[in-house]
Amino acid sequence: MTGPAANDERDSVAPVGAPAPAAPAAAGVWPGPLAADWQDFLTAELVRGADPSVLLAKMLEAGFDEGYARVAITVMRSMTDRVQQQNPAMLGDYVADPLRLEVAAGAVQRVADREVRLAMVLSNPNVVLVEDLLSVQECEQLIRMAQGKLRRSEVVDPSSGRLEISGVRRSEGAHFAYGENAVVARLEARIAALTRIPIPHGEPLQLLRYPVGGEYEPHHDYFDPAFPGTASLLKQGGQRIATVIVYLHEPEEGGGTWFPELELSVRPRRGSAIYFEYHNARDQLDARCLHAGMPVLRGHKWIATKWLRQSAYANA
Fold first, then answer.
1. pTM for the predicted model, two decimal places
2. Which residue ranges form the domains of the chain, and what is each CATH number?
């Protein structure tokens, strides 16, 4: 993760309430170090308060040796308890700062060269639905320009900070350098004007295509301080503080953005965007902004994602 080319379609992932991953070895075989996807799964379930006996049953069903599974759960439970005690940001006492946009639902405002309407505004947690951030023509232009760049999406392994392909994200994507073309430059300027977060504080724009069956299981966009790989990620511009997801092409069915903790589902609409904040001035993180890209049932979905950081991104 040394530059924009290494930053394609990345996100921090810790599946919550997701199906257990596959076991790396058959029953009765000691599989060595616990794989990262199982570490993520156990950590997320323990944070949710899952019964260890239920987790043990899942590991046995997947083919783990019982002794190995018991040790793994005990170790992960101990680590999770210690991290929660040392990191108040993970203890559920988060209170959002005043919304950066500071406007009411239904308001129309000019952002750079375009007028947008704020169709929905939530405070604490801070979530805003923005209509008409892009025109239909601009959406189509971005999609056309991304076609030749697409490759399988990756996520960040929270244990190492390295990119890897994971089954929790089923999509293809591409990235655009800052101001790479006129459409990207206009979108970046609008996002900066809307959020009052400077362009250099944003990671390079990511475009993603989700075909039928494509989805992104529940995850947080911020870098979880509980994982060892986070320290290296924060060197590139600090913590992620907010996300903008712009819908470029809506599927015929499915593909919404779901916030399970908020019981909120956002239907993709071309040109609109969902904006949400999850970091406050106390350096706490809002776990309520857990979200998922729901499975596409018919057609396909295109989105553009912009992750915003505390300070200037290292490759801006």
1. 0.70
2. 94-309 (2.60.120.620)
